[in-house]
Design goal:
This protein has about 170 residues and is mostly helical. The protein is about 60% helix and about 0% strand.
Amino acid sequence: MKRGWGESPREPTLALAYPPALGWLCQKVMAWQQEQYDDAMFAFSTGDYDTTITGLKNILAQEPEHFEAQLALGMAYYRKGDYAVAIAEGHKAEKLRPQEQLVHTNLSLFYMKSGDKKTAEHHGLQARIASWRADKSPPGEKPQSDSELEMAKPPMPSVKPPEKFPDMPWKKKS
């Protein structure tokens, strides 16, 4: 009788050996994707939109649900001046996260630049509605800010008011 892998007492079973290997592989793939994304964003920041588009398309070929890459791809096409493709890519990002404020903000920008003001205003309104959804504070209250992003506030120094103020000759005496 022929034995399969993991059936020998000296060989680990597939169930025991597979999870660590899978974890290692996932870490490598995620690190590769993050590196690809970082490279694409660097190319975007330098104005090299063709390299950006190529890098983001490579990421999306591996992981079609990568929202940030999909959103950035639309913006890269916009910066390149290809508004029709930017709109198409923006709608793909909208399918991934339909209530994301930035998706609708970008689509509004893309449509406005392409000359479709009515649709641009629609997406502008959708962006505003999405921002309202994100703000969970009651009406009239100041929204809570992210304490990590807040500017450092030095303590107010205590100032003792003077005991006597100087005479004010320009004021009439009563």
